[in-house]
Each structure stands twice: as structure tokens, then as C-alpha cells.
Amino acid sequence: MLKLFKIVAILEGISYLVLFGNMLIIKPTNPTLYKTLLFPIGMAHGILFIGYIILSIMLKVEENWDWKKFFIIAIASIIPFGTFYIEKKYLSTN
């Protein structure tokens, strides 16, 4: 399950950055394209975010994480680039 969580973490981080890119780069230059892309990007990000949180809860129980580690991993999903940091620092098996 840890491998699945890593994949979801990376995809959630990418979707978050694409959502910001759509908002900050495309919206000012092409509002019509922004509105067209907002729903599919937002929906993908929302599903990945929910999956990230559910998998982090499941892994907390399975891996017996302490509460501090769990909260750091959960909070990272709302910080840009946070999931990439978590994947490297907390989830790498090196």
C-alpha cells in the first residue's frame, strides 16, 4: 500500500501545481480556456486529494505512525510541493 500512496502523493502534488498554473498563468491570458480546464483539473485534484487523505489514514494504522508524523504527512497535501517533500523525506526507503 505504501507504493500506491507514493504514486497518489506524486500525482496529487502534480495536480495541485497544474491547478495553480491554470489559475495563475492561463486565467489572465485566456479566461475561456481557464474555464474549460477548471472542472477536469479541479475534479482530478479533488479525487487525488481525497485518496491521499484516505490512504494516509490507512497507512497510519498499518505502519503504526505516531500522530506527529501523520499530521505532517496530512498537512503536506495543502502546501504546494508538500507531497514531493513528504515522499522524499518520510516515505523513501533509502
Explain how this protein is built.
The protein is an all-alpha fold and 94 residues long. It has one domain. It has four helices and no strands. It has helices at residues 2-29, 31-63, 67-75, 82-89. Helix 1 runs antiparallel to helix 2 (31-63), helix 1 (2-29) runs antiparallel to helix 4 and helix 2 (31-63) packs antiparallel against helix 3. The model has no long low-confidence stretch (mean pLDDT 91).
Q: What value does the Rg take, in angstroms?
A: 15 Å
Task: State the domain count.
Answer: 1
Mean pLDDT: 91
Low-confidence stretches: none
Largest sheet, in brief, is:
none
List the helices and strands and how they pair.
Layout: H1 2-29, H2 31-63, H3 67-75, H4 82-89
In short:
The chain has 94 residues and is mainly α. The chain is 83% helix and 0% strand. It has one domain (2-89).
Keywords for this entry:
single chain; mainly alpha; 4 helices; 0% strand; 94 residues
